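PROTEIN DATA CARD
Card holder: Methyltransferase 22, Kin17 lysine
Chain length: 379
Origin: Capra hircus
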Amino acid sequence: MDEITFRSDTVLSDVHLYTPNQRHLMVRLNGMGQPVFLSQFKLLWDRDSQTDSGAKGGDHTEGTPPAGAVCSRTGASLQAGAGTITPEGLEAQLDEDGDLDVVRRPRAASASEPPGPPRDKVHPTILTQEEDDVLGDEAPESSPYNVIKIEHTMATPLEDVGKQVWRGALLLADYILFQRDLFQGRTVLELGAGTGLASIIAATVAQTVYCTDVGADLLAMCQRNIALNSHLLASGDPEVPFSWSKEDISHLYGHTTILLAAEVFYDDDLTDAVFKTLSRLAHKLKNACTAILSVEKRLNFTLRHLDVTCEAYDHFRAWLQRLEGLAGGRLRFAVEPVDATFPQLLVYERIQQLELWKIFVEPVTDPTVSVDTASQPFS
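Structure generated from the sequence above:
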């Protein structure tokens, strides 16, 4: 029984699942023949709610429902059309057979709803890469500096989930916007950047951001997203695409003080690889550093336990405990959770299962520590 596994053909991010269908704008096909969509994420720079907590349902712009409320918008419109008549004093209408006769009200035309196909159907707009006004009439009236444009795919195989936007990346981006002083003038490295959302947000305040992932197709999408947001940041183009020069590596080891990773802890092997990479980097960096990790605690029913469990999250937490328990090395790892009640400056559903963790890495000043045995990272 333990050897039996069931695999889903595709995985769809909740961010895209709850996005209104009008925002699913297909722009092209990638190198693997997968449809690529373009989404815009509005930054709530000027809202008074920046000083309020965003964990209680999240802030959102007027006229734009939070992502979690979109799935019930049809029911909301029906309730709005019910009018203000109360049941008191109403007499039930019966037909000639004594059955309840329901009078159907004609749907009044609304000037706010443009003519077109039903709202519950997806009709993607095909755009070219050279198209500047990608949203046409749907473009926001706000300044372009309030908008992050992200190209992504939808409903991908598990190995391509990095091409989608996930809530953990939005939570990490929110934290960067909240802690701008922490990132001001810093050198930042993101592991498993995916679409590059968090790196793009970090680049609005940091001095240098290294946005990394694996796969030429994914990196090309990430590079495209950086170009789409050139109004927010300046990008440095290497002589050879997706390559490291000796100067880059030297600068990375000499200046990096912040490491980022979001939604890369859904598979045990991947989690192992991420933490081992973090350990190796920490031993090579010249300065003390802080790793900020974003994870969503996902519950799944497993045949092995015959119960709902969160094995990937438990494996992630086991690694945090392992880091805290290290002793006798030349580095000290301190782990602490981040209170996720900071203001929400991006529109998404901030659920309770979203978590941020900080890992503080500092050199041990105890002269009795043996460097020969304590300088080895995880193998």
